[in-house]
Amino acid sequence: MSRLNSSRRIQIDTSEPRYDDDGDETLDDVNAGLKSQPSNSNMTEDLDPFMGVKVRRKASRLRDYQGDYIDIQSRPHLMKILEKQGDRKVLFADKVIKFTGSGKMKRRILLITDFAIYIVDPETDALKRRIALAAVEKLCLSELSDNFFATIIPTEYDLLMASTRKTEIVTVLVDATKSASDYELEVALSNRFEYNAAAEVVKEVQFEEVEGGVKTRIAQK
User: Fold this and answer.
1) Phi then psi dihedrals of residue 47, to 5 deg
2) How far is Cα of residue 168 from the mean position of the Cα atoms in its chain?
3) What are the residue boundaries of the TH1 domain, all occurrences included (predicted)?
């Protein structure tokens, strides 16, 4: 697995994720090709060639980070989850796409506080996972203009997600980790990286720049 440390700033992209009324997960730049699910555990997932591609406007590049994109104060169930864990300072809140160990996509709410990462099911308001920032070893993302990022947690299984606010999420996680522990979280940039999708499932994510966009491929090792 290629490991690159980089201090260069990733271009800011602030357009919002879009979710269909029927509950299907979509991003503005992720079209129907992403929704196909593998029917076999050994199958390679060929994702749409144009997924993860954003047309960036000048205004979007210059827009400041907002942090809370879902008005968490108006969502008592989310506040209750945080209070139960002793967390009150929310650094980031938004809807994302999470990839399961079997390759399915799930719509989730991602919360980042100064102590932990929370993954919440927006349909049931249930806390699906809490990850202490101290448990995160590094973040993996490509060098291209896609929306994917993997959070590597050596003591647990890893987390692959997609968000049009990837740059802001990475920035928040790096800053929060440094503030909490004076430890600088590694950000590994590579167009091919592995992550543990489940206890005994390792997958490789490959990115390739093609005409008009980025082709993303997820394959089980």
Assistant:
1) -95, 160
2) 10
3) 54-221
